[in-house]
């Protein structure tokens, strides 16, 4: 089985600014947890013969401690416009069955919460946003950097991208019963594949 996908994501979580999870620090959300949602737009991708281009999905998480300690709770929502073949391919990839970075993550999963179908939307721009209809909606506001730029994190231990913008992304979520009020946010372009090239980043979930 061979797969790849690339595009852009926007995420929020319950941690105070700045979320320590990418550097394997203890979460700073309520009760010492990190509860989050990342919405991905696949601009280009496939799983063998299944075309994944244009599909949006949401990846929901609860991290009870620093990421490398494991016992994650993870659930996925695939956009209702995706075909059953596309949804099945994404479930195989994100559950870790198809190799690549999510197979590495699977060793840290404590509970797989399953896959749901709903309207998932990613909107790009200076302030990208993500939503799952009636369940979660947030807009990312990057922290300002020097000379009018944005603040970024680069080469983190856990990251969906080798460099990503960080900032604020308030919004309430109740996906899979993992209710939280969003504080921290991040966004970047991503590229994942079953065959990870040397020096490629590990994705953050």
Estimated helix fraction: under 10%
Order of helices and strands: EEEEEHHEEEEEEEE
Q: Report how far apart the termini are.
A: 22 Å
- Please tell me the total number of domains: 1
Strand content: over 45%
- Counting DSSP H or I runs of 4 or more residues, the number of helices is 2
Could you give a short account of the major beta sheet?
10 strands, mixed
Radius of gyration: 15 Å
| Count of beta strands | 13
Mean pLDDT: 94
Shape: globular
The class by helix and strand makeup works out as mainly beta
| Poorly predicted segments | 197-205
Describe the protein in words.
- Helix content is 8%, strand content 46%.
- It is mostly beta strands and 205 residues long.
- It has one domain.
- The strands form two sheets. Strands 1, 2, 3, 4, 5, 6, 10, 11, 12 and 13 form a ten-stranded mixed sheet that branches. Strands 7-8-9 form a three-stranded antiparallel sheet, with no helix packed on it.
- Strand 11 and strand 12 form a beta hairpin.
- Residues 197-205 have low confidence and may be disordered.
């Amino acid at each position: 089985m061979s797969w790849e996908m690339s595009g852009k994501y926007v995420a929020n979580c319950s941690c105070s600014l700045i979320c320590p999870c990418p550097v394997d620090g203890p979460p700073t959300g309520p009760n010492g947890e990190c509860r989050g949602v990342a919405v991905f737009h696949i601009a280009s991708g496939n799983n063998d013969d299944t075309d994944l281009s244009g599909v949006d999905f949401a990846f929901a998480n609860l991290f009870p401690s620093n990421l490398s300690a494991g016992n994650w709770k993870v659930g996925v929502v695939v956009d209702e416009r995706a075909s059953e073949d596309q949804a099945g391919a994404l479930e195989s990839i994100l559950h870790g069955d198809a190799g690549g970075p999510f197979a590495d993550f699977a060793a840290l999963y404590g509970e797989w919460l399953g896959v749901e179908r709903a309207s998932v939307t990613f909107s790009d721009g200076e302030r990208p946003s993500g939503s799952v209809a009636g369940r979660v909606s947030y807009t990312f506001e990057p922290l300002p950097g020097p000379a009018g730029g944005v603040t970024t994190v680069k080469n983190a231990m856990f990251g969906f991208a080798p460099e990503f913008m960080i900032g604020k992304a308030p919004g309430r979520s109740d996906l899979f019963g993992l209710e939280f009020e969003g504080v921290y946010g991040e966004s970047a372009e991503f590229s994942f594949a079953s065959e990870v090239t040397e020096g490629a980043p590990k994705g953050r979930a």
